Amino acid sequence: MAERVFVFGAGYVGLVTGACLATSGHTVTVLDVDERKLESLRKGECPFFEPGLSEVITKALAAGTLSFSLLGDIEAVENIAVIAVGTPSTATGSADMTYVRAVADFLEEKAAPGTVVVMKSTVPPGTGAKLSARLAAAGLGYASNPEFLREGSAVTDWFETDRVVIGGDDASVAKISRLYADMDSPILACDVTSAEMIKYASNAFLATKISFINEIAVLCDFVGASVDDVSKGIGMDTRIGASFLKPGIGYGGSCFPKDTRALDFLATLNGYDFHLLRSVIDVNSRQRLLPVRALKARFGSLEGHRVALLGLTFKPETDDTREAPAIEIAELLQAEGAEVVGFNPIPVTIPGLDTIATTIEEAVSGADAIVLSTEWAQIVESNWPALVASMTGERIVFDGRNALDPKVIRAAGGSYIGVGRPEGVGANNHAG
Ligand SMILES: NC(=O)c1ccc[n+]([C@@H]2O[C@H](COP(=O)([O-])OP(=O)(O)OC[C@H]3O[C@@H](n4cnc5c(N)ncnc54)[C@H](O)[C@@H]3O)[C@@H](O)[C@H]2O)c1
Q1: In the annotation, is 20 catalytic?
Q2: Prediction pTM value
Q3: Structural domain tally of the chain?
Q4: Cα–Cα 20 to 30 A to 317, which of 52, 169, 230, 323?
């Protein structure tokens, strides 16, 4: 059965949610406060880079099931209202609930009684219990429906999600389940607070896997083991699983850093010291120092050295640079006196980095070091012998994602440094 849906927030989550629900036949209006964003959306242009999303928007617009509206222009909201606005970090690490509160206030005033408010934004466990009581007084239902999509593969993730989590009373869960009726994914129904906790616990666990393998990578460097082989070997154990075991300069983005901080804040607020999570966060911060430490160890001072920083987004296939490791690395390298030239396969800017080349060749030519920060295919699959040949001096290649073949870099006269990949160890790594 087609449902009438209003989605608040035309960001990565709101837009994917709205467009995908509309292609499934639901009648969706996506609302935002940013008129410029809405103008381009009405023309079928996606305001950010997300593979496949433009096509889904165009299809839904053509079918007449998707529309866009400025928040201030909407007079009535009914049936289902999905909140998908940002919940960034505050200075304390807690989740900033300003945008969520603004939408909740709006709905309290404008939504027709019987409307079910669905929280898709990531909000601290306990939020829904309080908010639902307030909304109930206005005759509104409430459900928590956390989102697990990943930028870069958001559309596929939407349609092929491992699970849909819906927290709420029986009536709300039944209603929201209908949004996913055409999908094969299992639905986990639970109470609101547990649904909220599932989202934070999932992100914290994935971040833990990343920091764990990063710790193992450090030990691999000490003892002369290949973290690539170790990661593969432990990932083959089905109890562990192979995903999120890739070592490197750490996680970034708009979710893991802020959600781990918010969960840690929640623990502290409740008088509990979440040691393990604190260590996960600390290890991640330390990983970002690795390229700077490695270059300082080689050059002594970075003064007068030119470094090409490749991959400025927090992961490939997105234009999102929120909390991308490249931001901090650029800042640290420049503070040490290096001249940094950035490059990203799709045009983006990052704070504090003024020089961004339009081609990888331009960024690398004349550099005496490279830091590979994000493993875009366009970067990894470049002509590395030619790139190394265009460098000068020691031609150091710091591979922050263990994505390059050390043999190729060394054969071209470069000096390769990976994360947990000591020279001469591992299948990918022998000199010949
Ligand atoms: N980005 C992800 O990969 C991802 C994945 C899962 C969950 N989440 C969570 O989903 C939420 C949204 O994240 P995002 O990355 O889509 O955020 P975003 O910053 O990309 O988008 C938020 C949108 O909300 C709009 N907005 C702000 N106030 C508004 C209001 N009062 N009414 C209507 N629109 C308003 C903004 O203009 C913006 O377009 C966050 O809580 C995030 O943690 C994000």
Answers
A1: no
A2: 0.96
A3: 2
A4: 230
